[in-house]
Amino acid sequence: MKVALFLFALTLTRAQDTTYNCNGWSQFTIGSYLVENNVWGQGNITDFTQCIYRTGSGDDINFGWNWDWPIGNSDVKAYPEVIFGKKPWSSSSTNAALPIKIQNLDEFYVVYDLDMVATGSYNLAFEFWVTIDSMSSETGITTEVMIWMDNNLIGPAGNIIGTVTFDGFDYYLYQANWDSWTYFAFISAEPQYSGVLGVHHFVDHLVSQGMLNPDEYFADFELGNEVVYGTGQTDILQYEIYVNSNPLRVSSPEPIPGHYSLSYNYPNPFNPATTLNYTIPTSEFVSVKIYDINGAELTTLVNEKLSSGKHSVEWDATDYPSSIYIACISSGNYFQARKMLLVK
């Protein structure tokens, strides 16, 4: 059985209500995320187009960007991107979770799924900036760290200084020393367009090698395409960030007596078990089921008549791989779903 689950399950076809903004440095926000039409290397080039876009509203939003840059020199022209936190060039943070002192960063996961088509010279890269304090401008930058998930006809700056393996993927580590800060780039040995990335693994490695100062601050986190030339489009199908097991959402309110509710699971991310709390207003038949990211039913946790009030159920996911899962409760005409992140 499959159900029609939403989960930012965004279509790649541009709907009529799609809003494009093709002005350089234009921005729009989606919750705690800022999408920016970054054209930092444009210089005097005018014969190009680059747009950010969004479709839909509420939780049903599709966003992304496209570009068309002429062949020129080998310098990066742009980095259309989605930003979380306080970029050093910004005056404020998109979310209170960042900046965070590195020594206080236990876990940082990004769950992502995207579709990208491109030609020419470009990469697909995550990035974060490290600063001397929580409110630093660009003058307080000490370190720039990139995690390249794909690239074509473009290479990282600096020299290779080692290789690392995280969650089954190999990365080549490069280092360059700029006038103002140190640059590190982890280059994935194979393209990655979706998955669960444990960013804290990269942070921990650099700290263990004396390359990051744990007393400094992880300022922000970004995903974008560095573009030298060519055409391309990146559609963001899913994008979620978890800092220290916080799924960066508005906290669930306390259940209101006489109403239905399904709280977010705790802990989240989890391994291997997590608990769901729910409330029903009357004595009635309740079903709680677990689905995978594609909507396939995996297991039934509850399927019986229950008394009114608060209830809880635990899901043990020992036999399931790391992924996003969906818990769904249904009772009468009520239906609610919550996303859960299993990380092993």
How would you portray this structure in words?
By secondary structure, the protein is mainly β. It folds into two domains: 19-243, Glycoside hydrolase family 11/12, catalytic domain (Jelly Rolls, Sandwich), CATH 2.60.120; 261-342, Immunoglobulin-like, CATH 2.60.40. The chain has one helix and 23 strands. It has one helix spanning 199-208, and strands at residues 19-21, 27-30, 33-36, 49-57, 60-69, 81-85, 100-101, 108-118, 121-131, 141-152, 159-166, 169-177, 182-188, 194-198, 217-224, 227-243, 261-262, 273-280, 284-292, 297-306, 309-316, 323-331, 334-342. The strands form three sheets. The chain has a 16-stranded mixed β-sheet that branches. Strands 20-19-22-23 form a four-stranded antiparallel β-sheet, with no helix packed on it. A three-stranded antiparallel β-sheet has the order 17-18-21, with no helix packed on it. Strand 22 (323-331) and strand 23 form a beta hairpin. The chain is globular and about 70 Å long. The model is unreliable at 1-15 and 249-257 (pLDDT under 50).
